[in-house]
């Protein structure tokens, strides 16, 4: 049995009653607060993401793990305003269980949200009361890191007891093997330090959180340690070579007028491929199908809310709508599409397409092209479908499909190519406009593409040279990397 399957089985065995473990009234309040927060949560513009996993969140010792969670919540706004950083909490564990976001999230979606503030606050309140995370998430710390971890995240070990540190050592070693950053403090056995140093290399920080004697009896030792731990970790993290390089690229992007996000990395693609198109945490295709089926039902029953969620950046809404359009029966397809366009889908769709390209967001671009493509394919006798297709092309669909066909992501390329083939062979509507002058292409696929990015089309050399000076020079590398 694969490791992911074994983990899923253990999770199933340990997930009997989270509500009982975390006290019913508190849990019910948490569920309400989480639902409200998830509807409005959008931290994409708070700054550079520093994904974090905290191991050892328990009431032992000075509660450093709990105080670290408090510090993350307390400094969200100031970090964003003063340092252009924000900390998405990817997961936390107490040795008996864990909390982490939905494992199906890809990198850019996960770090744009992370655990809700409601979830973090619930843990802060319930842990000192003797409650724990048993029955929630993963008990094994290796599994916590494997499934909650994201590219370039920091994994903190906040345990103060040596026995607890030994229990969490496998999780820390897994973090090092995964290429993450590690932060520890306090004295460790020499054998443990050798293993940690070997796993992390220069990606390990041994923080100095010692508290002066004058403050040792103040009752706030844990809080002071947590503050120092977070401050030192952020100062150290942004000076790591890989992070400095990404921050420099981000500044270059801002200077050029766009703000690209870090996209999902090669590891995510490899994991997705290994799971046969499923999710990296090993969820079965049946689980994924059930998940999407639920979203589709919600979309169809409440199109206004679905369009609103899409406007907030929830690209799963686009995939669900695209599946609904594709599955509509002949004769009903016009009614189904207008079910959503009447709620303002068209402008929202193209607004999100523009943002997806600006931010280099693979997953969102894929979902949006699925939605747009399946809006184009239905036949109708009254001409409504033709009017819709022409309106979408007028809004710039051909330009986004051209970008999609040149994407390095296979799913994006497939979605775009399928729609182009349908428009060209099914409706004779595949004609592009010159990016520079807007002249319509008279003969299909005769305009020349930019040789570097293959995402912009030109009617001639003069237009290409002019557009290069007018703005394409600044965007070409970004489009080539999409």
Automatic annotation (TrEMBL):
Biased segments, Basic and acidic residues type: 1-15
Residue intervals of the MYND-type domain: 434-476
Q: Identify the keywords attached in UniProt to this record, alphabetized.
A: Metal-binding, Zinc, Zinc-finger
The Swiss-Prot or TrEMBL record annotates one GO molecular function as: zinc ion binding
TM ranges: none
Chain spans, region Disordered:
1-24
InterPro entries tied to this protein: Znf_MYND
Annotated Pfam families: zf-MYND
Identify this protein by name: MYND-type domain-containing protein
- What species does this protein belong to? [Myrmecia] bisecta
């Amino acid at each position: 049995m694969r490791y992911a399957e074994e983990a899923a089985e253990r999770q199933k065995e340990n997930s009997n009653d989270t509500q009982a473990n975390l006290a019913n009234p508190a849990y019910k309040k948490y569920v309400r607060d989480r639902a409200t927060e998830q509807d409005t949560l959008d931290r994409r513009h708070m700054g550079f993401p520093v994904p974090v996993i905290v191991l050892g969140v328990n009431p032992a010792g000075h509660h450093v793990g709990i105080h670290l969670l408090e510090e993350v919540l307390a400094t969200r706004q100031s970090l964003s305003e003063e340092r252009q950083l924000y900390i998405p909490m990817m997961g936390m564990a107490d040795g008996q269980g864990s909390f982490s976001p939905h494992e199906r999230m890809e990198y850019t979606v996960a770090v744009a949200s992370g655990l809700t503030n409601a979830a973090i606050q619930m843990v802060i309140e319930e842990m000192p009361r003797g409650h724990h995370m048993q029955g929630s998430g993963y008990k094994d710390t290796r599994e916590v890191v494997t499934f909650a971890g994201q590219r370039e995240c920091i994994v903190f070990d906040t345990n103060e007891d040596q026995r607890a540190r030994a229990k969490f050592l496998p999780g820390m070693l897994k973090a090092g093997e995964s290429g993450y950053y590690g932060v520890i403090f306090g004295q460790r056995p020499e054998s443990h330090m050798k293993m940690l140093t070997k796993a992390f290399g220069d990606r390990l920080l041994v923080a100095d959180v010692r508290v002066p004697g004058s403050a040792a009896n103040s009752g706030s030792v844990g809080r002071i340690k947590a503050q120092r731990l977070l401050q030192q970790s952020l100062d150290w993290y942004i000076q790591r070579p890989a992070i400095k390089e990404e921050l420099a690229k981000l500044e270059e992007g801002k200077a050029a007028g766009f703000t690209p996000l870090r996209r999902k990395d090669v590891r995510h693609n490899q994991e997705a491929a290994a799971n046969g198109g499923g999710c990296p945490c090993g969820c079965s295709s049946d689980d994924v199908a059930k998940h999407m089926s639920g979203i589709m039902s919600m979309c169809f029953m409440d199109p206004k809310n679905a369009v609103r969620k899409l406007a907030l950046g929830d690209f799963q809404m686009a995939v669900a709508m695209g599946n609904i359009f594709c599955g509509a029966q002949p004769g009903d397809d016009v009614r189904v599409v207008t079910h959503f366009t009447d709620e303002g889908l068209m402008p929202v769709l193209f607004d999100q397409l523009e943002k997806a390209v600006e931010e280099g967001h693979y997953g969102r671009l894929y979902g949006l092209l699925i939605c747009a493509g399946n809006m184009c394919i239905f036949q109708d006798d009254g001409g409504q479908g033709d009017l819709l297709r022409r309106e979408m092309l007028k809004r710039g669909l051909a330009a986004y499909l051209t970008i999609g066909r040149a994407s390095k992501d296979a799913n994006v390329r497939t979605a775009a190519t399928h729609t182009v083939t349908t428009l060209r062979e099914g409706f004779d509507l595949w004609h592009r406009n010159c990016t520079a002058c807007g002249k319509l292409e008279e003969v299909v696929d005769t305009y020349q593409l930019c040789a570097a990015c293959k995402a912009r089309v030109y009617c001639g050399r003069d237009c290409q040279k002019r557009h290069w000076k007018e703005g394409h020079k600044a965007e070409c590398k970004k489009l080539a990397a999409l």
